[in-house]
Amino acid sequence: MGQDKAALPCPAPPESNAAEYHAVGNSLFDVATKRLEKQSLSVAISGHCSVEHSFSLIEDQVADQGPMQGVLSSLEFAKANDFQACLCTPIDVPFLTDRDLSLLIATWNQKQEPAVAFSDRIEPLIAIYPTSLIEGLRVSLANDQRSLMKWIKDIPFQSVALTKTSCRNINRPEDLKLG
């Protein structure tokens, strides 16, 4: 899309998510942060955000390294603040539900191993990662291996089945019109 998505308006939800969804017209930022706050989680924002907010901002330690660097920076922030893990959700996935996040958290709580969403494919940016993975992420980035999708396949993780709708992201302007 070529722009910061945080301030974009949230599209109408598909029918399957409408019962849990009352955010049409709010920004993608508001939808994402309120969804996390409902889970009684500490919220921090990773990367650039054009929306004014009072949350902690996590800057990537190395610029232009993609989502893997964002996950690493988030885990380092979590560890520095005495959290054992980090729940990651992208700003541009407005149809994740409270139930989806509760399921991710419950799965994490069972084994305290990475809990990664799976719709029709692995969704590595909808996941809970423990801080114990920091060193492995550092090594991957140092070796110029920046694909979260490839990296996640090399570690033990728990799959959390979510719908394609819940995991659908906003990539193009026309995605804002689809419900």
Automatic annotation (TrEMBL):
Biological processes, Gene Ontology terms: Mo-molybdopterin cofactor biosynthetic process
One GO MF annotation is: GTP binding
Q: What is this protein identified as?
A: Molybdopterin-guanine dinucleotide biosynthesis protein MobA
Q: Which UniProt keywords apply?
A: GTP-binding, Molybdenum cofactor biosynthesis, Nucleotide-binding
Pfam families listed in its UniProt record = NTP_transf_3 (PF12804)
Q: Which stretches make up the MobA-like NTP transferase domain? A: 25-153
